[in-house]
Amino acid sequence: MSERIGVDTNVLLRGLLGDDGGQLARATRILETEPSTEVFVNCVVLAELFWNLRAVENVPRARIVEALEGLLSTQGFAFENETAVEAALRDYRDGLGDFSDRLIARINEAHGASQTFTFDRKAARHPPLALVP
User: Fold this and answer.
1) CB 65 within 8 A of CB 31
2) The whole model's pTM is what?
């Protein structure tokens, strides 16, 4: 790759949802770049993307998993902490809480944290997340 570009959440949302014709065409031009260009997606963008799909657009879990798996397998895309993202997506697909909570835990785990403490009782049901004692 000779160039790397980053994208914000709203560019990915337009590409996935196709809900705004004018913005969709512009987002598509960015997302379908030249083979020499790599599209970089950071973890904040993925967490926001998940939140928008789930909370704003009410997209079912299976469709969110499908969308995120599709992004991860798209040629020319690169992801921050890709191993942690893949683990968080597996957790989410398996019903182990919200993707964002799992992503936080998996990133922390990748950086040597044995546990991630939270006040979220539902999230803490699934290690390495744990309730604050």
Assistant:
1) no
2) 0.91
